[in-house]
From TrEMBL:
The chain crosses the membrane at residues 12-30, 36-56, 76-95, 147-165. It comes from the Bacteria. InterPro entries: DUF4199. It comes from Algoriphagus aquimarinus. Keywords: Membrane, Transmembrane, Transmembrane helix. This is DUF4199 domain-containing protein.
Length: 170
């Protein structure tokens, strides 16, 4: 089993650690590091998945890769990245409640500045529900959102990369 997933563990773990480091680094420069950390996730996730599948194919599977193997390795890589990122960001926000308050205030400010256009597009009820959900937000919500936005694109990238790298024995 380790042979099958060793590259997924390595690259998923590295990507998760880099996501935490990116969140910490961005928090020094921006009051709300969550949006830029999502962009970073869109870059690092496909790279980690590609490397995990490529290394599995070349070094553990003698140059062959079925679609199912690629999907399995990619799944482990992006899920591990998401879980590590989730736990890391959640712990950072618990340890530094002032950072969490900063993020929350930034999101409330963006919502208030965009009220007219949001109400015009989705209505007053949706705006009020969004405002209420941001007011009731806890650190877990931010960490979970980050993890979900690694899982959803991760699945998409895994499908594409598995198809591209697929090579079955003749």
């Amino acid at each position: 089993m380790y042979r099958f997933f060793s590259s997924a563990y390595k690259f998923g773990g590295i990507a998760g650690a880099l996501s935490i480091i990116a969140f910490l680094t961005l928090s020094f420069f921006y009051p709300d590091p969550t949006n830029l950390n999502l962009v970073f996730g869109y870059v690092i996730t496909p790279v980690a998945i590609f490397l995990a599948i490529k290394f599995f194919k070349e070094y553990s599977n003698t140059g062959y890769l079925s679609f199912a193997e690629g999907m399995s390795v990619g799944f482990v890589a992006y899920m591990l990245e998401a879980i590590i990122s989730l736990v890391g960001i959640w712990l950072i926000l618990l340890i530094h409640p002032d950072l969490f308050d900063q993020v929350k205030l930034s999101k409330l400010s963006v919502l208030a500045n965009s009220k007219e256009s949001i109400v015009a597009q989705v209505g007053e009820n949706s705006f009020d529900m969004t405002l209420e959900s941001i007011k009731n937000m806890i650190p877990w919500d931010i960490a979970l959102n980050d993890a979900l936005w690694k899982i959803i694109p991760g699945l998409f990238f895994t499908i594409i990369i598995s198809i591209i790298l697929r090579k079955n024995p003749n």
